[in-house]
Amino acid sequence: MKNQNELTEGLDFAFLGERYLDFSPAGKGGMGQVFQAYDQFLKKEVAVKVLIGEQASDRQIMRFQKEAKLASSLAHPNIVKIFDFGVSERQELFLIMDFVRGESLQDLINRNGPLPLQEALGYAGQICDALSHAHSHGVVHRDIKPSNIMLEASERGKPMVKIVDFGLAKQVDDQSGFISQGSTVGTPLYTSPEQVKNEIVDYRSDIYSLGCVLFAMLTGKPPFRGETAMATFEMHVNRDVSEISLDDCLESLSEESREDLEDIIRHSMTKSPDGRYQDIMEFKADLQELMLEETHILKHEDDNLQSRMMVLTLDSLSKPKIGAIVALTVFLLVAVGLQLNQSLSQSAANRAEVRLAPFITSSLDDIPGDIIFRVRRNGSCVWMGSCAMKDEDIKSLKDDKIEALELRGLAMKGTGFKYLAGKTILRLSIRDTKINNANLRFLNDIKGLENLDLSYSGVSDKGIANLAPNPGLEGLVLSGCRGITSRSIPLIVERFPNLTGLVLNFTSTDGSELAKLQGLKSLSHLSLTGLKLKDEDVLPLASMKSLLSLNVSNNKSLTDRSVDLLKGSRKLLSLNVINCPGISETATARFQKGHPRCRVETEKSDMSLDAKELANIVVSIIGKE
């Protein structure tokens, strides 16, 4: 076993003290060597990046210190975290960071060649999220390339992007918004024209480089490669971007989608920064739109978000349960006087069958079957608790890794959430309960949580305040939580900055804080049903660059003006204004004409309780069967 006092490739680690053990070479970076070590204090593997003194020029030392300072100020799941940095007595500069166990994007491309479309776009989306975070903190990376993009295996199964090597990163001037001129930097294959020409650089340089990386993921090669570095630089400056083509790859892609994808890449790689995307999230929004169109997964926005969290299929239930559903549905229809038209009935049927990736089976064998029952699809299952479930029943949950778990029950107060500590749960639904706000703190100890549904749980603003920051949370559903007001919106934005879906249906939220949602740079699905919104409340939503679908149904005070105010939402693919009597067909037709790719739902109904709310009641009650 090696320790910190031994030499590894000519380097003495004594200057790091007794904290680190087990040094071993892990590779070389642009400015020095990288070693794997064990941190006795953090009790985890770390990476130690060292710039050896005799090889370091003053300029390299300055770059190294800049990397440490800038990177340590960033905290994002897609950026390698910096723990410590400094200089030894022998002028050995070091940087302590997370050890990424995985491979680089370049290694993946070298091994497999061109990546499948969905995989490539998924990685590009994560890179956009990381760069958006860096740009919002005034940091430009300036060396985005496949070898600086690590892919780490995650608890949710799909690789997580980790951007490394901020050795070329610079702080953007607060006044001008630009980086001052300097020597040419960056990697020839992925550098921007303005870097080559030694001009001022801003965030749009990273956008150009990401366009190059996306092309490389899809084709297996960079867009420009000359015989020499200078020849490659010349191509970045002068080669017509219209020559970029995807004709030789992605054979399964439709011609229209191929052309759209080429346009996206060309837009990102326009020679002049003014001709590119002006924000990295505009780039991501176009990629998301392409993914939705190509895979035909565009659905009603809150249905889409909740379908990712849970699965319930009628063919998986026993005949008695199906009979119970039918009987109960008829009873409820009569009781509440609802008249569901054919379209909404079909929509409800579609909701009953949701496609999800295979679940990891969770063992709850010690709990009686009438408390917990399994819903099975394609050999996989999700465990669901009935209304008779109690907090102590959660204790019998055996597995430590669960893809989806649904807990429900009027007897639950949330004290049993403590039994979920340390478990990996990707999607958690706690619906139709009376949760004590204080008990939500136990959810902070769950690992890997991506989607959280607290619908009709009695949670209020105090409960949201008890949830710890979670940059990995992608979906949050708070339907029917009347204790949720606009005061929760700033907290949601601050603590869950990477949300892609947010559902606030039938809460006590009004329009006073909706402008704060602009801080959610990745938000693509937003549902605001039944909130008594006014026309002016929707104006801030029109400027949300990543928004793809918006549901403002059952807002009786909205008029044609609200639709006109949304005309700037060029990315919208779905707009729901059902049961908004103040919105005319003329206004929606006018909006549809200006947004031909957007599906506008306008069908009216006298329902005071929509089909999905009815389905929720049905699912809740059949848990007793």
Query: What level of helicity do the residues show?
Result: 25-40%
So what's the overall shape?
A: globular
First and last CA, distance: 60 Å
> Quick one: how many beta strands?
23
The CATH class of the largest domain is Alpha Beta
Number of domains: 3
| Model regions low in confidence, pLDDT < 50 over at least 5 residues | 1-8, 172-184, 296-327, 329-370, 372-381, 605-612, 617-625
CATH topology grouping of the largest domain: Leucine-rich repeat, LRR (right-handed beta-alpha superhelix)
- Overall CATH architecture of the largest domain: Alpha-Beta Horseshoe
Indicate the structural class: alpha/beta
Can you list the strand order of the major beta sheet?
13-14-15-16-17-18-19-20-21-22-23
Question: What's the total helix number?
Answer: 16
Largest sheet: 11 strands, mixed
User: Hey, roughly how much beta strand do the residues contain?
Assistant: 15-25%
Compute the gyration radius: what is it?
Answer: 26 Å
CATH superfamily of the largest domain: Ribonuclease Inhibitor
Could you please describe the fold and organization of this structure?
- With about 625 residues, the chain is of the alpha/beta class.
- The protein has 3 domains: about 90 residues, Phosphorylase Kinase, domain 1; about 190 residues, Transferase(Phosphotransferase) domain 1 (Transferase(Phosphotransferase), domain 1), CATH 1.10.510.10; about 325 residues, Alpha-Beta Horseshoe (Leucine-rich repeat, LRR (right-handed beta-alpha superhelix)), CATH 3.80.10.10.
- It contains 16 helices and 23 strands.
- Strands 13-14-15-16-17-18-19-20-21-22-23 form an 11-stranded mixed beta sheet, covered by helices on one side.
- Strand 3 and strand 4 form a beta hairpin.
- Helix 3 packs antiparallel against helix 5, helix 5 packs antiparallel against helix 7 and helix 7 runs antiparallel to helix 8.
- The chain is globular.
- The N and C termini lie far apart (about 60 Å).
- The N terminus and C terminus are likely disordered.
